[in-house]
């Protein structure tokens, strides 16, 4: 009976997410016409630039302190482990399914990056309010649960935009470069084709969105091609040292992506929460500038329902299908809903055994749940930026989020049994 009670408790928050997602999909239907594609993009932009940063900043500012950060030090490590293990498993999926080159980054990203913010911000508060929850007083559970979820969202945003963003971009560019390499041309025709390519790119993606240098080859470059290798042969090998390799790495990465709005909101929240003088000015009923914190919190409250509706609208695209391999979708589902949760149990239980994680059932539950979440929705935004696997991403999101209702309910029940 206890297991049945936990199963019901775990199913309620997942059902809430499913209902709002279904509403978003219904509103996005052509015959309904309330939530067309342009509206989805505009609402997604508002969530990305306004709601999410406000949510992250306000929650971190009000709940994170220097003492709590010391206790929560393992969470960034835990999330990093999810990305590393997910990437390894994604690489295995690529070896078995042999997808096109431009989808490699998408597969690695979907396998590595889970929805570490929004899903937790919906599931954890709902679990705290349910009867039979093993996490104690609902108010205390809610306060700490929002702190854990906000920190997870902030760290996840940093990893997502520093890692997934760049592997999708490098994968997309590598695919284009491989096509060009197969058809060598003269220098004059190459310059002409590059100018034509730049002209054809401009209407697809405004330069104001991605301020790339005119010569993108160094910016996106992967290991040296054959022609580049001949040029480097004349350079003494001693110059190809650590600094040279680091320079090549930084040219590949777009460090500006680290400063996505959610990341900026996280930095602001950490500054306010960790500096006592600023915290006393903004946080608390007697704070002179508490209206700023209240306004940010009020804005952040709109993030969860708005983004969940956007998820529903975007998932509708996946119903159209793309003819992609079913084995690829199945592989990602197995990685995210079977392999990662099992590995997560070993990682978190090992960390508890060696005293690296505090004996807080809610904190341990959040660490475990980070291994069982569906792929991050921002991966769809990243694929849109580079035009690499947009339709395939929609199909992956459709099936992973459709099965998330079953998977999250099952694993939430198992995780609550483990931490209770």
UniProtKB/TrEMBL annotation:
4Fe-4S is among the record's keywords: no
UniProt similarity note: Belongs to the auxin efflux carrier (TC 2.A.69.2) family.
Keyword DNA damage: no
GO cellular component entries: endoplasmic reticulum membrane
Name recorded for this polypeptide: Uncharacterized transporter
Chain segments annotated as transmembrane: 6-29, 41-61, 73-94, 106-127, 147-168, 253-275, 295-316, 328-356, 362-386, 398-419
A biological process from GO: auxin-activated signaling pathway
Keywords (A to Z) from UniProt: Auxin signaling pathway, Endoplasmic reticulum, Membrane, Transmembrane, Transmembrane helix, Transport
Membrane topology recorded in Swiss-Prot or TrEMBL: Multi-pass membrane protein
Localization of this protein: Endoplasmic reticulum membrane
Spans annotated as Disordered: 190-215
Job of this protein: Involved in cellular auxin homeostasis by regulating auxin metabolism. Regulates intracellular auxin accumulation at the endoplasmic reticulum and thus auxin availability for nuclear auxin signaling.
